[in-house]
Amino acid sequence: MIQVRRILYPTDFSSYSNQAYFHAVGMAETYRASLTVVYVVTPGSPEAGKGRDYWLGQLEHVRPADERIAVHHVLLEGDPAGEISRYAADAGIDVIVIGTHGRTGVDRLVMGSVAEKVMREAPCSVLVVKLAKGGGGSRAHVVAAG
After folding, report:
1. Residue 10's closest CA among 44, 43, 45, 35?
2. What pTM value is reported for the model?
3. How many CB atoms lie within 10 A of CB 96?
4. What residues pair up with 96 in beta bridges, in sequence order?
């Protein structure tokens, strides 16, 4: 049987990552696991200009209604995919639950995909959650890594 004790939920505060949040909380409830919510600030980005206190405040708002779920908030700085993967390894995370914009073709080549890079670099399993076409509901894809 799979052992899930530590779940990592990276967020960029978009509707795409919000969909992943519901999956992460559901898994935390099911497995009685802890939930770590992480946001990565990219140096030099417009988001970095808002300051550390701003982002820590935003992270603190991400909290499940179920008070039995142990929640940790982590603010990192650097390349999002690299920092998420590094943190997962350092913290002994069992599964990462991450949202994706679901870009394809030229958009994906130009923009890249944090979720795709995390899948390749992560030391653990990754659950990728994508909004269904038309914006209603979500679909999840489990990818084992490591």
Report:
1. 35
2. 0.85
3. 30
4. 8, 126
d(CA 42, CA 59): 16
Domain span at residue 10 reads 6-143
Number of domains in the chain: 1
User: b/e for 101-132, b at 16 or more Cβ within 10 A?
Assistant: bbeeeeeeeeeebbbbbbbebbebbbbbbbbe
Does residue 1 belong to any structural domain of this protein? no
CATH of the domain at 36: 3.40.50.620
Residue 111 within any structural domain of the chain:
yes
* AA letter at 95: V
Q: Which of 17-21, 25-29, 35-39, 56-60 has the lowest mean pLDDT?
A: 17-21
Q: In the predicted model, what is the mean pLDDT of residues 41-62?
A: 94
Q: What is the pLDDT of residues 84-140, one digit of tens each?
A: 999 999 999 999 999 987 555 544 443 358 888 999 999 999 999 987 665 555 545
Number of residues written out for the chain = 146
- Count the alpha carbons within 13 Å of 125 in the hemisphere toward its beta carbon: 15
